[in-house]
Design a protein that fits this description.
The structure is a homotetramer. Chain A is mostly helical. In chain A, about 70% of the residues lie in helices and about 0% in strands. The first copy, chain A, has six helices and no strands. In chain A, helix 2 (about 25-45) packs antiparallel against helix 4 (about 60-80). The longest helix of chain A has 21 residues, at about 60-80. Chain A starts with a helix and ends in a 10-residue tail after the last helix. Chains in contact: A-B, A-C, A-D, B-C, B-D, C-D. At the B-C interface, helix 2 of B face helix 2 of C.
């Protein structure tokens, strides 16, 4: 079940059953991801660290749904562009490891340009 | 390689090598996803449909990187909250199928509240 | 009525009547603006150019409200940081004029780094 | 100088000198605002409350620029749609006063649906 390809297959079926490929331009998919990410952010808006833990417990289902919404759009976008999300993530982790070498980045929250 | 768990393991290692868990509050992770989504959007800003295809070809590496950045944060956030991203996506696809029944939603780009 | 300072005064009163300054950290204000911007984007999601004109007519009130929400947060954030929004905008327009000289930028939608 | 109309006039001139109206569809303007808001958010990403104050001091110019970028797009979008930003903000403040009555909302950070 934890396989990217099985999920992608379900997403494709969902989309094609509704004939939605015509709307799923990469620009709109990117906007869709940003919109869902904003809905996830809204759950935590104005809340301090302590309150965040409480929210994570109280609004679990809504958080799961927003995370899933982002995932569904992200997996489809990658698939539409012929990008392997898994490979892209592994490649990016390697690049990030170069941008953020352990000895410089450890315990620091700065962007790589400021390390 | 197309397995969620293998990727999550690499993300955890990357983060813990840098002792970054202390910064990765859900509120910040959500903001991080929104920021990466905005960087993806920016690639297509002001561009029409025709130009989008050209951009997809010309800026493939940058698009892959932004998609990967979103994925890395999303997978870690789900993992941090004890959420199975794969299961959450499958559950949400089922809910979406109810919100967007094929006979109502086919070929239409309206939100479910307006179908 | 078209005066920044009058509006800022009303925003301050609204906030202070509710004792909300304690929540209005710049990080949260920025997130609030991003969330409202996403709500504005959502009105146009999946829509082509032709449909956009129709939406502008049909959903005028909602569009006005989202634009206003962004404005209210933006004006307050600038005010909280002691920034004159009007001056900041004029300064930025001058910088943009240097980044996008007319002879290079005319009729082109590229970012200044690609002109 | 603190007058909306003077700024709008400068924004119009900047845009028309570059013949950019052709790109400034409301959907793109909304995306542009969201992108600039994300750039503002990024300045505060991963930072706690105490660090935010330091950042406000250290990165003042960058913060001013991001705030101005949002303002420039917001003022132009309102103008393009024939919306008076000042009036829309005043109208929305009145609506917000109804959604968030002082006696319910005072000192609370909850959304009006949860008060």
């Amino acid at each position: 079940m934890n396989d990217f390809l099985l999920i992608i297959e379900k997403i494709r079926t969902f989309r094609d059953d509704r004939d939605w490929m015509q709307f799923h331009h990469p620009k709109d998919m990117a906007a869709g991801i940003a919109i869902e990410a904003a809905e996830l952010m809204e759950i935590f808006l104005w809340k301090n660290e302590e309150e965040q833990s409480q929210i994570v417990a109280e609004k679990r289902e809504r958080i799961e749904e927003e995370i899933a919404d982002i995932g569904i759009l992200l997996f489809e976008l990658a698939d539409n562009l012929g990008i392997s999300l898994a490979e892209a993530m592994e490649t990016k982790l390697r690049k990030n490891a170069e941008k953020y070498p352990v000895e410089k980045a450890k315990g620091r929250s700065s962007k790589y340009t400021e390390l």
